[in-house]
Amino acid sequence: MCALCSLVHDACKDFEKVGATIAVTPCDVVEEADITFSCVADPQAAKEMVFGNCGVLHCPTLEGKGYVEMTSIDSDTSHDIVEAISGKGGRYLEAQIQGSKTQAEEGTLIILAAGDRSLFDDCQSCFKAMSKNSFYLGDIGNASKMNSVLQVVGGVSLAALAEGLALADRAGLNQADLLDVLALTPLASPHLILKGRAMIESSYSTHQPLSHMQKDLKLALGLGDALEQSLPLTATTNEIFKHAKRLGYANHDVAAVYIRARF
């Protein structure tokens, strides 16, 4: 049995055509399915799925049920959710996603999981369908922390690439030549070259929303504050992405950060 619920009803239509049951509420989904996967916009939306009206906790019991949170969330939110789920007899796994829309379509995401090991094992067939690798990282919170660290590296790298391309343009250098040279250096990665091409071609169709990157940088800064770890580059990069959002590029691809760097 496959049941699903979406805040955007049209998103369910293709699944309904292949036999999925469309549920009205998150609680309805959990009652129909042995394992429920949740992937929404942000930590607040993730908590709403569990604690909100007709949310998961409205189910009389969660005995025999598994709940997998795939939203990018902070460690505190994950602990709140696991306490609620386990309190009703359910199993909980946080499964953070590394990858873009294209990787999701190709089934080549990376999944970072933490929490109930037996639930992680039970999810392997699903994880193999959507990812090229899944990692079990131990206790609740470890996956969200790992995801934050990776997003820091990714966000700072993209901001640096955008500034470098903007400087090259201002200096009268051919940006395509710059990317060709970059591709031959140890600094290169397929992701950076792909985003670099998008920047110089002004191609911002959304594969990874700029707003999602800014949200993840914000979560990383929260983790840094909690641990009293200085993150000056992350803080600056977050401001760059915030400014790009203010310029109207929140729903464009992360490559649109170049527009902010250029002017």
TrEMBL record:
One of its GO terms (cellular component) is chromatin. Keywords: NAD, Oxidoreductase. Signal peptide: none annotated. Residues 7-138 form the 6-phosphogluconate dehydrogenase NADP-binding domain. Residues 141-258 form the 3-hydroxyisobutyrate dehydrogenase-like NAD-binding domain. One of its GO terms (biological process) is transcription elongation-coupled chromatin remodeling. GO terms for molecular function: DNA binding; NAD binding; NADP binding; nucleosome binding; oxidoreductase activity. The keyword Oxidoreductase applies. InterPro entries: 6-PGluconate_DH-like_C_sf, 6PGD_dom2, 6PGDH_NADP-bd, HIBADH-like_NADP-bd, HIBADH-related, HIBADH-related_NP60_sf, NAD(P)-bd_dom_sf. SUPFAM superfamilies: 6-phosphogluconate dehydrogenase C-terminal domain-like, NAD(P)-binding Rossmann-fold domains. Belongs to the HIBADH-related family. NP60 subfamily. This is Uncharacterized protein. It comes from Pieris macdunnoughi.
